[in-house]
Design goal:
Elements lengths: L2 H12 L17 H20 L2 H16 L4 E5 L1 H18 L6 E5 L4 H4 L9 H10 L7 E5 L6 H12 L3 E6 L12 E4 L14 H19 L4 E2 L2 E2 L7 H14 L4 H10 L4 H10 L3 H10 L4 H6 L2
Parallel strand pairs: 1-2, 1-3, 3-4, 4-5
Antiparallel strand pairs: 6-7
Length: 307
């Protein structure tokens, strides 16, 4: 075994995600109900571990919000499951929050093909991470968030090193404890979920923990940018019939309008739910509603309070 392989072997041997879980030693002879029970019992532990890292998650929310306010992006980088989770979170932001599709970006080792089929070896070189960031013209006002269950994926580490060099805020979401992390980042969100039910299968608890954290970062940043009124998403894009109907329901929820009236108001507001709500609740024109929303950074409460 050559030196590099020996070093990798020793690193993997120590990682929490590569240990055997004592609670699932008999899973190979368990029936289906017991298998489901064992997995469920382990999954229950994930939210508790995430809770311990909420202060760090809050810092990541603030960093993402600041980047968005300054025309920057949140860029996720990962390999395998982690990379797919970043792409998933990024792709769901525009229809949910009406955000620019380029505002949250997901990069995966091996490129788009790796989303559907694993590309072995693509994650093994730090320079690939740097190349991926250079290809999308990463800039200092971007936040680069590495996703790596092990905390050591070369593609992610290389990207974070490069991002830090050029002045980006860097975040690492990992599921091993901080003491097993060697790369320097501005915000470390380590959620040590412990050994997986199936040893090394980080598509399970590790993936669940990462998805919970990513949901909080993008949802939190968008809430802080006025994309939500009370607890309802009101800046959604009417990209399909379901979202069009949801928009009418939202208008009806906050007003005394019936279905047809809500549809008419939505049309008058050019399909913009926030504008429609300020128009009706504030009893103002479309132009005035748009001015108020712009003046108050998209927050409906503030816009209405100052009419």
């Amino acid at each position: 075994m050559n030196t590099d392989k020996e070093q990798l072997f020793r690193q993997l041997k120590k990682l929490d995600t590569e240990q055997r879980n004592p609670n699932s030693m008999e899973i190979d002879v368990a029936d289906s109900l017991e298998i489901a029970r064992i997995i469920n019992q382990e999954d229950k532990k994930v939210a508790d571990e995430v809770e311990k890292k909420l202060p760090q998650v809050a810092k990541a929310i603030d960093a993402a919000k600041e980047a968005f306010d300054n025309d920057g992006r949140l860029i996720y980088m990962g390999a395998g499951t982690s990379g797919r989770l970043g792409i998933l979170d990024a792709s769901e932001c525009p229809p949910t929050f009406g955000s620019d599709p380029e505002q949250v970006v997901g990069l995966i080792a091996g490129g788009k093909e790796a989303v559907f089929q694993a590309k072995e070896g693509a994650e093994d070189f730090e320079e690939n991470g740097q190349d991926a960031l250079e290809e999308i013209d990463v800039a200092p006002n971007d936040v680069v968030c590495g996703l790596a269950a092990s905390g050591r994926t070369p593609y992610v580490v290389g990207g974070l090193k490069f991002a830090r060099q050029i002045g980006c805020t860097t975040v690492l979401v990992t599921t091993v404890p901080a003491q097993q992390i060697s790369v320097d980042v501005d915000i470390l969100i380590d959620v040590p979920v412990g050994p997986e039910v199936v040893m090394g299968s980080t598509r399970m608890k590790s993936a669940t923990a990462q998805k919970m954290v990513l949901n909080m970062i993008t949802t939190g940043a968008n809430i802080r940018r006025g994309k939500v009124y009370e607890n309802v998403m009101v800046d959604l894009q009417l990209s399909n019939e379901k979202l069009h109907e949801r928009s009418k329901r939202i208008i009806m929820m906050f007003t005394d309008l019936d279905y047809e009236q809500a549809d008419q108001l939505l049309e008058k507001s050019d399909g913009h739910v926030k504008t429609a709500l300020v128009m009706h609740l504030g009893e103002v024109s479309k132009k005035k509603a748009e001015e108020q929303l712009k003046k108050h950074n998209g927050f409906i409460r503030k816009a209405l309070a100052n009419i």
